[in-house]
């Protein structure tokens, strides 16, 4: 879908969209002959403050083979007015009650016709040129079913920008949900794309997962295929007070824990294994903190002793049957 010049904005624009020309850089029509068709779904509910910037960040990509869908949950703010404003530039949009974000994404994916899929929340932005980079990589690597790039997180109150690298350091790294967000343990959701075949294989998102649906999806993808990575920033995410990941962090952690235990069981691992890893992680951090305190007080012998204990702690936990039994019971009750 090659987009003509966009209409004048109705709301203040964010990020690079604020200074962008209203007409996208149109890439040669011939590129559409070899670039895969990409479907992007934007779920939305009462995000009129952000959604216009999100829409323009997609349309201004100028991607020549785009299928862009917006699924709104029946917003009561000015979202519908904005969607009507861009009616001629969207492949499809609807505003009607739904059962939450995961349901909205599944609805959009059900009518999407792209070979490659992704979703972009209504308060996130694609970086300039993101879709061309994705399409070009996938055209050159037809074996790739799952691809992620880096993402930037923008703190709305301070305008501080943090870059998060996409990457999974090992086949079990994502199971360690307590590390999610650390280098080697994280995929920025709006910078992650996958094949339609892979999406259909896992049958989309679990609709009762409202806070960690992307994490659960990555765990399922990881069981089926290899992740490819681009070392480019592909998206920007706004961190604001109404953000679910900010306001409901504790609930999100509980959802991630459930996803991790279920994935561990699917992979045939003992239920207590994740609990042991988590306890080992806590013990290691505690011992290292004690070692640093001794070091700050010039108590070098005590600091060294705590460091040795930190190194030995995981092995001691793994070989202590009483703790293993207690942790297995705890894991079974999640």
UniProtKB/TrEMBL annotation:
Organism superkingdom: Bacteria
Pfam families linked to this entry: Glycos_transf_2 (PF00535)
Domain Glycosyltransferase 2-like: residue ranges: 39-143
Gene3D superfamilies: Spore Coat Polysaccharide Biosynthesis Protein SpsA, Chain A (3.90.550.10)
GO MF term (any one): hexosyltransferase activity
Protein name in the entry: Chondroitin synthase
